[in-house]
Design goal:
Layout lengths: L8 H16 L5 H13 L9 H13 L4 E5 L5 H7 L6 E6 L2 H13 L6 E5 L2 H13 L6 E6 L6 H10 L1 E9 L11 H6 L1 H15 L3 E9 L6 E8 L5
Parallel strand pairs: 1-2, 1-4, 2-3, 4-5
Antiparallel strand pairs: 5-7, 6-7
Helix pairs in contact: 2-5, 3-4, 6-7
Bound molecules: 3,4-dihydroxybenzoic acid and magnesium ion (MG).
The site of 3,4-dihydroxybenzoic acid has 5 residues, from loops.
Length: about 240
């Protein structure tokens, strides 16, 4: 059927701005989050961090999961890590970043937010850092994670999901960013030309097929950051 929906990007952006102003201005970390954005801009980091409402979505998911130990893959300037750490006073975030400049900016933003004690930035590629973390979890030297946000190089989405799930408690929450990619997700052709789309399709198809998640959905998003979406799931099987 022809899509007669007249909404445009300008509509989504207006709603995004309105909702951000209505909902987030009184957030206790509002000024720390604004400073993190400014710091990242000044350092010329790519402007691909979560939007304020997406950060707030992550924070609400962390609260719903009663998450105390959170894993993030892809720190960038620390913006989403600050959002997730702000979900409670006893919340710890472990976040992995491959780019030393990004990690340095993130540490500064996290420090300025007063969260240095609760947010650990690990420098390195996910594929190198995750196995070490997993060994610590398996030896009982590190707590299992209650929530995971995957937002790094899209080509490795599935590797990151598998590694993360192995370190989670049952019923932990998992969110993978940027899987819709302006709708390219549904195109086999787009995947042939863009390895990030291929990475999105791999993780979505495996999430449905491999049984590592009980309950899984895909949330398409629009707003100031355009048209994209989250894969969102709950760790475990249907036995309990
Ligand atoms: C891209 C990566 C992101 O994490 C994001 O939120 C938006 C875009 C990208 O690599 O294109
Ligand atoms: Mg992202």
């Amino acid at each position: 059927m022809e899509n007669k929906d007249p909404t445009q990007q300008s509509t989504w952006t207006s709603v995004d701005t309105y909702a951000t102003q209505s909902l987030l201005q009184t957030h206790p970390y509002a000024s720390a989050l604004a400073s993190a954005t400014t710091l990242a801009k000044q350092a010329n980091l790519p402007g691909i961090e979560a939007s304020p409402l997406q950060g707030a979505f992550l924070s609400t998911q962390c609260q719903l999961a009663n998450a105390k130990h959170i894993l993030e893959i892809g720190t960038l300037g620390g913006y989403s890590a600050i959002w997730m750490a702000s979900s409670g006073p006893d919340v710890h975030v472990t976040t992995i970043e491959v780019d030393p400049t990004h990690a340095e900016i993130a540490r500064r933003a996290i420090d300025a937010a007063g969260l240095a004690e609760r947010v650990e930035v690990l420098l390195g590629a996910g594929k190198d850092v995750l196995p070490g973390l997993r060994r610590e979890v398996e030896k009982g030297e590190r707590s299992r994670f209650d929530f995971v946000f995957i937002d790094a190089d899209k080509q490795n989405n599935l590797l990151y999901l598998r590694e993360a799930v192995a370190m989670c408690r049952p019923r932990a929450g998992v969110v993978v960013d940027n899987v819709v990619r302006r709708g390219a997700l549904a195109s086999e052709e787009a995947a042939k030309n863009d390895s990030r789309v291929e990475g999105a399709r791999q993780v979505v198809e495996a999430a449905g097929r491999e049984g590592m998640l009980r309950g899984c959905s895909l949330l398409q998003t629009v707003g100031g950051k355009g048209y994209d979406g989250f894969l969102i799931g709950v760790v475990g099987d249907w036995s309990g």
